From TrEMBL:
It is found in: Membrane. It catalyses: maleate(in) + 2-oxoglutarate(out) = maleate(out) + 2-oxoglutarate(in); succinate(in) + 2-oxoglutarate(out) = succinate(out) + 2-oxoglutarate(in); (S)-malate(in) + 2-oxoglutarate(out) = (S)-malate(out) + 2-oxoglutarate(in); malonate(in) + 2-oxoglutarate(out) = malonate(out) + 2-oxoglutarate(in). GO terms for biological process: lipid transport. One of its GO terms (molecular function) is antiporter activity. It is a multi-pass membrane protein. Keywords: Antiport, Lipid transport, Membrane, Repeat, Transmembrane, Transmembrane helix, Transport. This is Mitochondrial 2-oxoglutarate/malate carrier protein. Belongs to the mitochondrial carrier (TC 2.A.29) family. PROSITE patterns: SOLCAR. Its main location: membrane. Pfam families: Mito_carr. The keyword Cell division does not apply. GO terms for cellular component: membrane.
Length: 294
């Protein structure tokens, strides 16, 4: 499973880069660098080449290795702990709380890789004299510690944790509802197709719910300290300044690449959890069920 997620990271890394660039485009009321997703992709490819669109891949892989493994590991452990002795899964509200807890904890663990990723993917949009020029995620981490202090690795940790909790809660709630609704139509039966369709719907809802927090996180982690003063005081300051100078719809800037990235990730996550729960019930608990546990 983790090999699949790493492979998926290689596939979606360009989308992550485009999403981050679009979220930073037009910051502070400046002219937008990119008109839309297609314009962003073509501009980056023209100016930086195919290698440029994979900038930050090492940070993306480290984030996957830290955040995703921690999140799924904690969630699976808590899911098993709160399941009844006969294999009945916890109720919906409990699962939502478990997901938020796992996501928040994993976000704290993954923030150093996240801030490295944000900075590396944003670097190409800056003038040459202002670029940080990190050569890899480990170069980024070591230079951040050396130049800005170790606590900088957790800059934007608050909105990162909030985003993770929103993502996990939204994913669980929307997936459960979508799966139940699709199953009730009579056109679906328990299986991979049902899980896939419910996951894509869940990804869409999760994208819409989490993007305002995500753009706040991206801008805080990308900002520089000018004359000893940070560009933003916190997430609320980012959101208020963004709405004031760029309009409220700018909070969903980069929606297409974000969903194109989150959709497949959601599919992999829930198919894995569904299969894990299925085999756990079948081979460990000795029970079978025609409906999914999530």
């Amino acid at each position: 499973m983790y090999q699949q997620l790493m492979a998926a990271t290689v596939f979606v890394q360009p989308l992550d880069l485009v999403k981050n660039r679009m979220q930073l485009s037009g910051e502070g009321g400046k002219a937008r660098q990119y008109k839309n997703t297609f314009h962003a992709i073509t501009t980056i490819l023209r100016n930086e080449g195919i290698i440029g669109i994979y900038t930050g891949l090492s940070a993306g892989l480290l984030r996957q290795a830290t955040y995703t493994t921690t999140r799924l590991g904690i969630y699976s452990m808590l899911f098993e702990k709160f399941s009844s002795t006969d294999g009945t899964p916890p109720n919906f509200l409990t699962k939502a709380v478990l997901g938020m807890s796992a996501g928040g904890t994993a976000a704290f663990v993954g923030t150093p890789a996240e801030i490295s990723l944000i900075r590396m993917t944003a670097d190409g949009r800056l003038p040459a004299a202002e670029r940080r020029g990190y050569t890899s995620v480990f170069n980024a981490l070591s230079r951040i510690i050396r130049d800005e202090g170790v606590l900088t690795l957790w800059r934007g940790c608050g909105p990162t944790i909030i985003r993770a909790m929103v993502v996990n809660a939204a994913q669980l709630a929307s997936y459960s509802q979508a799966k139940q609704g699709l199953f009730s139509t009579g056109y679906f039966e328990e299986g991979i197709l049902l899980h896939f369709c419910a996951s894509m719907i869940s990804g869409l809802v999760t994208t819409a719910a989490s993007m305002p927090v995500d753009i706040a996180k991206t801008r805080i982690q990308s900002m520089k300290i000018i004359d000893g003063k940070p560009e933003y005081k916190g997430a609320i300051d980012v959101l208020s300044k963004t709405i004031k100078s760029e309009g409220i719809l700018s909070l969903w800037k980069g929606f297409t690449p974000y969903y194109a990235r989150l959709g497949p990730h959601t599919v992999l996550t829930f198919i894995f959890l569904e299969q894990m729960n299925k085999y756990y019930k079948q081979y460990v608990m000795g029970v079978t069920s025609s409906s999914g546990g999530i």
